[in-house]
Design a protein that fits this description.
Largest sheet of chain A: 2 strands, antiparallel
Oligomer: heterodimer
Strand content of chain A: under 5%
Shape of chain B: globular
Distance between the termini of chain B: 86 Å
Number of helices of chain B: 20
Order of helices and strands of chain B: HEHEHEHHHHEHHHHHEHEEHHHHHHH
Helix content of chain B: 40-55%
Structural class of chain B: alpha/beta
Order of helices and strands of chain A: HHEEHHHHHHHHHHH
Structural class of chain A: mainly alpha
Number of strands of chain A: 2
Largest sheet of chain B: 7 strands, mixed
Strand order of the largest sheet of chain A: 1-2
CATH superfamily of the largest domain in chain B: Periplasmic binding protein-like II
CATH superfamily of the largest domain in chain A: MetI-like
Radius of gyration of chain A: 26 Å
Strand content of chain B: 5-15%
Chain lengths: 304, 437
C-alpha cells in the first residue's frame, strides 16, 4: 500500500512539474555554455590578467579597465569607425535591397536565375570574400586599380589610402549583404495582399504614390527587422577587415572587433579584452533595444 | 538457440580481440605533434619525419603547419591551456622568451648534456635563440637551454644583378651609393621601382626589420638600453628612419601599393620584376626568387650586406612543450630535425642552415653560392632583441615598433616625434608590467 502511494505521489509530482523537468537539460546547457562563460568573462574584465604572463597572476582592479578603454585612443577610433561602417553600409544596403526587390517583384522570364545569381555573395564565406576583394583591390595586381590606372589615376592605392580603404570595406559589405536585404524584402512584397494595390490603381495613384503610401508602410515592420539584424551584424564586422586591411592603413579601418581581437590574441591582455567585449555588448544591446522599440511602435501602427 | 549463442559469443570474442589490439597498438605508439610555421619549416619536418619513424618504430610524428599570421595566437593559446595539442613547437626569440617565462617549455640542459650534440657546430646567433643569449635562466631558473635551432636567416640587401650589370652599378658600400643605385633603377613609367619596403601597419609587418637593417649600419641603437630603458630615439636611429621616409616620400622609389606590403607582398614585388631592391630574410626569400615557377627574376638576383656590413639576424628554434608526454622521444626528434636533417632540409627547401658544417657542405655551396656571406653575416650580425633577450614583452614591443615606424614613413609623423612616441609607449608598457622603474 505504501509503495503504491509512493508511486502515485511520484507520478503526481511529475505531472505537475513536467514542464520544469523537461526544461532542466536546456537550462543546464544554457547555464554552462552561456551564463558561466559570461559570468567568468565579467569577473575577468575586473582583473588585470594576461594568459601570456601567467607568472604575474590575476590582480583585481575593479572598473579601471573599463575606464582605460574609454580613455583609449585606439578603442575610440575603432568605435567611431564601426559606427561609420554600420551607418553607411546598412543605409545603402537598405536602399539597394528595396530597389532590387521592387525591380524583381512580379513574374517575368528568368526571374529565378536572377535571384539565384544575386544571392551568391551572401553564401560565400566572409574569409573568401575578403581574399577575393583584397586581390581585386590590390594596388599591384588588382583589377580595379588597373582600370583606374588606365583611366589616368595611376597613383591611387585603394587599400592604402585611409579614406578609400574605409569606402572599400563599406562597399564589400554592401556587395555581400545587399542580397540578404533584397531577399527578405522580396519575400515581404510577395506576401502582401493585392487588394490595396488594386484599389490604388483604380483610384489613379502613381507608382511612387503606391510605393510611398501603401507598399512602404506595409513592409516597414519587416524592414525594421532587417535593419536590426544588419546593424547587429555590421557592428561586429571582423573577417573582411582582418583579411583585407588588418585594420589599416594606420587605424583607418580598425573596428571594435578587430581591436578586441588584437588586444586578446596578439597582446594576450585577457582582462582588458574582456572589458572591451562587455562594452561592445552593452552598445549592441542598447542599439537593439532602441530598434526593437521602434519596431514595436511600427508593428502597432500597422496593426491599427 | 545454442547455435545463436555460439555465434554471438564468437562475435564478442573476435570484436574484443580486434579492439584490444587497436587499443594496445595505440598505447604502445608514442605520438608526437609538432607545430611549425607553414612553409619550408613544416614541409621540411614532414619530409624527414618518415625517416625518423623508420628508425624509431614506436614513435609517430604529426607535423601541423601553422600560418605565420596565426602562429603566436594558436600556439600561445594551446600552451597556456596546457592542452597538449603540440608536443614540439617552433619559436623565434620574442616567442621563446614568452614560452620560457611562462614555464610552457621544458629545459633541455640535461638532454643536451646526455646526448652527443656538439654545440660548437651551431652558428652561435642561431643557437642563442634557444638560450636567450645565455639569459634564459633569468626568466626561468629551471635551465639555460630551452630550444635547439631549426632555421636561421639574415636580413640582406637583395638586388637585381642583371640590371646592375646593364647600368654599370656595383653593390653599394656607402649609403650614398645605395641611394644612387636605388634611384637609378627606379623607372615608374616602365612599372619598375627602386625599392620594395615593408609598409603595412600591422603586427606581421616587417617594418622594424627593414628599419634596423638601416639603423644597425648607421650607428643606430637597439630598442632598449641598460635597465630596459627605451632608447629608440637616438641620432643614428633618426638618420635611419629619415632615410626610410625619404625612400618613400622624397625619392619616391617604392611601388604605389607599398603601404599594403607585408613579407609576402615585398617578395612578390621583386619576384615579379616590379622592384629592383629590397631588404629581406635572405634564404627565406631566395627560395621564392630562384624558383622559376614563382619568379620572373630567377638567376637575376644578387645578395649582399647593407652598406656598413651589419645584418639583422633572426631564426626559429624548436622547443618541447611542458605538456609533452614523451619528452625523451621528443628530444630525439628535436635533435634529428635540428642537426641530422639540417643540410637535407636546407637543400630541399632553402631553410637557413644552423650548423657550420652544413654551410660547408659542397652541395650546399654549389646550390647556394652566397652561403659563405650568410654565415659571415650571421656570425657578425645582431638580433634586435639582443639588448634584452630575457624580456617576455617582445611581442608587444615589436608591435609598438612596427606601428611607430610605419607612422613616420606613411602617416607623415615627423621622424623625431615618431621615435619619441615609440619610446614613450614602450616605457608605459614596461612600467605597467614592472620591467622598468
Amino acid at each position: 500500500m505504501k509503495r503504491v502511494t509512493a508511486i502515485k505521489k511520484t507520478e503526481n509530482f511529475a505531472e505537475k512539474h513536467i514542464l520544469i523537468i523537461l526544461l532542466v537539460p536546456l537550462l543546464v546547457t544554457l547555464c554552462s555554455v552561456l551564463l558561466y562563460p559570461l559570468g567568468y568573462s565579467l569577473v575577468l574584465s575586473l582583473c588585470k590578467w594576461s594568459i601570456a604572463r601567467p607568472f604575474l597572476g590575476k590582480k583585481f582592479v575593479g572598473i579601471s579597465q573599463y575606464i582605460k578603454a574609454f580613455k583609449s585612443g585606439p578603442f575610440f577610433i575603432a568605435i567611431v569607425n564601426t559606427f561609420i561602417f554600420t551607418g553607411a553600409a546598412v543605409s545603402i544596403q537598405l536602399v539597394l535591397g528595396i530597389g532590387i526587390a521592387l525591380l524583381l517583384h512580379g513574374d517575368f522570364r528568368g526571374r529565378g536565375i536572377f535571384q539565384t545569381v544575386l544571392f551568391i555573395p551572401v553564401v560565400l564565406t566572409p574569409v573568401g570574400v575578403g581574399i577575393l576583394w583584397k586581390i581585386l583591390l590590390s594596388t599591384d595586381i588588382g583589377l580595379f586599380p588597373y582600370i583606374l590606372s588606365r583611366m589616368g589615376f595611376r597613383e591611387i592605392s585603394l587599400l592604402s589610402n585611409p579614406l578609400l580603404a574605409k569606402l572599400c570595406i563599406i562597399m564589400v559589405d554592401i556587395w555581400t549583404e545587399t542580397p540578404f536585404v533584397f531577399i527578405i524584402v522580396l519575400a515581404s512584397l510577395e506576401s502582401l495582399s493585392l487588394e490595396p494595390f488594386e484599389a490604388a490603381h483604380i483610384d489613379g495613384a502613381s507608382r511612387w504614390q503606391i510605393f510611398r503610401y501603401i507598399t512602404l508602410p506595409l513592409i516597414k515592420p519587416l524592414i525594421m527587422v532587417v535593419v536590426l539584424i544588419r546593424v547587429m551584424d555590421v557592428f561586429r564586422i571582423f573577417d573582411t577587415i582582418y583579411i583585407m586591411t588588418g585594420g589599416g592603413p594606420g587605424s583607418a579601418t580598425e573596428s571594435v572587433s578587430t581591436h578586441t581581437m588584437r588586444v586578446m590574441f596578439q597582446w594576450f591582455r585577457t582582462g582588458y579584452a574582456s572589458a572591451l567585449s562587455f562594452i561592445i555588448l552593452a552598445i549592441i544591446v542598447a542599439m537593439s533595444l532602441v530598434l526593437t522599440k521602434a519596431l514595436r511602435v511600427e508593428y502597432l501602427q500597422v496593426k491599427r | 538457440m545454442k547455435g545463436k549463442l555460439g555465434v554471438c559469443l564468437a562475435i564478442v570474442l573476435i570484436g574484443s580481440l580486434v579492439l584490444g589490439t587497436v587499443v594496445v597498438s595505440a598505447q604502445t605508439v608514442k605520438r608526437i605533434t609538432v607545430g611549425l610555421e607553414a612553409g619550408f619549416m613544416s614541409d621540411g619536418a614532414s619530409l624527414v619525419a618518415p625517416d625518423f619513424e623508420k628508425a624509431h618504430p614506436d614513435i609517430k610524428i604529426t607535423v601541423v603547419p601553422i600560418p605565420y599570421t596565426a602562429f603566436r595566437q594558436k600556439v600561445i593559446q594551446e600552451l597556456s591551456a596546457g592542452s597538449g595539442a603540440y608536443d614540439i613547437v617552433g619559436g623565434y626569440l620574442e616567442l621563446n622568451a614568452s614560452y620560457i617565462a611562462a614555464g610552457w617549455v621544458i629545459p633541455l640542459d640535461k638532454h643536451v648534456a646526455e646526448s652527443d650534440i656538439d654545440t660548437n657546430d651551431f652558428i652561435p646567433s642561431f643557437y642563442n635563440l634557444g638560450t636567450l643569449f645565455g639569459r634564459a635562466s633569468q626568466l626561468n631558473p629551471a635551465g639555460d637551454v630551452y630550444g635547439l635551432p631549426f632555421n636561421g636567416d639574415v636580413m640582406m640587401l637583395i638586388f637585381r644583378k642583371d640590371l646592375y650589370a646593364l647600368n654599370g652599378l656595383t653593390p653599394p658600400r656607402t649609403w650614398e651609393e645605395f641611394v644612387k643605385n636605388v634611384t637609378k633603377l627606379n623607372q615608374p613609367k616602365d612599372d619598375l621601382y627602386g625599392m620594395a619596403v615593408s609598409g603595412a601597419r600591422a603586427n606581421d609587418s616587417h617594418v622594424m626589420f627593414d628599419f634596423y637593417s638601416f639603423a644597425l649600419n648607421m650607428d643606430g641603437t637597439l630598442p632598449l638600453g641598460e635597465g630596459n630603458k627605451p632608447q629608440v630615439y637616438s641620432p643614428g636611429n633618426v638618420r635611419a628612419l629619415q632615410l626610410y621616409v625619404d625612400l618613400v616620400n622624397k625619392y619616391k622609389v617604392t611601388p604605389p601599393g607599398v603601404r599594403e606590403y607585408r613579407y609576402a607582398e615585398k617578395n612578390a614585388a621583386v619576384a615579379q620584376g616590379k622592384a629592383t631592391h629590397m631588404v629581406q630574410w635572405m634564404l627565406a626569400c631566395a627560395g621564392e626568387l630562384e624558383d622559376p615557377d614563382q619568379s620572373r627574376v630567377h638567376g637575376k638576383v644578387g645578395y649582399t650586406t647593407m652598406p656598413g656590413g651589419g645584418s639583422v639576424v633572426g631564426g626559429w628554434s624548436i622547443l618541447i612543450a611542458d605538456a609533452c608526454k614523451y619528452p625523451k622521444e621528443a628530444f630525439e626528434f628535436l635533435k634529428f630535425l635540428s642537426i641530422d636533417s639540417d643540410a637535407r632540409i636546407s637543400l630541399a627547401y632553402g631553410k637557413g642552415p644552423v650548423l657550420k658544417s652544413s654551410a660547408q657542405d659542397p652541395e650546399m655551396i654549389k646550390k647556394y653560392p652566397y652561403i659563405a656571406d650568410y654565415v659571415k653575416a650571421a656570425t657578425n650580425g645582431m638580433h634586435m632583441c639582443a639588448c634584452s633577450p630575457a624580456l617576455p614583452l617582445w611581442l608587444e614591443i615589436t608591435d609598438i615598433l612596427n606601428f611607430g615606424f610605419a607612422d613616420a614613413v606613411f602617416e607623415g609623423v615627423p621622424v623625431e616625434e615618431a621615435l619619441k612616441h615609440i619610446d614613450k609607449k614602450m616605457a608605459e608598457l614596461l612600467k605597467e608590467e614592472g620591467f622598468l622603474e
